[in-house]
Amino acid sequence: MERGEGFSTAYEEALRLAVVAHRQQKRKGNGLPYIIHPIHVSVILLRHGFSTEAAIAGLLHDVVEDQDYELAEITQQFGPRVGEMVDILSERKRNDRGERRPWVVRKRETIERMETASRETMAVKAADTLHNAHSFSEDLRREGAELWRHFNRGPQHQLDYYRSIVELSEKHLGRHPLVEELIGAVDRLAQAIDETAS
User: Fold this and answer.
1) For residues 30 and 83, what is the distance between their CA atoms, to the nearest angstrom?
2) Residue 185's closest CA among 137, 150, 144?
């Protein structure tokens, strides 16, 4: 079997871009540097055998959404496949007047976009949800139900949304090991929510 090189210049450039873009951002709840999340998403994708382009999209999936980074710059630097993935994965958090759009509307739009997304794009979303579900579970065990005060929606809304991503992941990826891992993580989150319910 032919093996590729371990080092990727494009991945290095994407990692640097993500680190700089998210340098001031913290994770809700635990307050850790936000960059932990996109790095972990990209690692999950690489460990499950997805392409370097998918891993780069994993690194960059929140820079347009959270940091107002221009999608055109990502497309120019990393190519149309990465640009398309990041575009589909990016929520439109504000309307034309700069007002925050409702959480429920944004999540519904995400689900609609993922219905027709490519297999690789779905894999990035699955890896994103997998890491978020693990983070929620760990933070719930540390902080209890107080954790939810940091978020726009409570546990049932989050869980229902994650279960929608599981269904879409099964539709696009079948019984891929990433999907199996995601199912387990969402099930553990449901258990953690039950255990910490007040």
Assistant:
1) 30
2) 137
Angle between helices 80-89 and 71-78 (to 10 degrees): 150
- Count of residues for the chain? 198
**What is the Cα–Cα distance from 84 to 19, expressed in whole angstroms?**
21
Mean pLDDT score of the chain, rounded to an integer?
91
Q: Find out whether 57 and 79 touch, Cβ atoms under 8 Å.
A: no
Choose which CATH entry (1.10.3210.10, 3.40.50.2300, 2.60.120.890, 3.10.20.740) describes domain 9-196. Answer: 1.10.3210.10
In the DSSP assignment, the letter for residue 62 is T
- For residues 131 and 41, the answer to whether their CB atoms sit within 8 Å is yes
Q: What percent of the chain stands above pLDDT 70?
A: 96
pTM recorded for the entire structure: 0.93
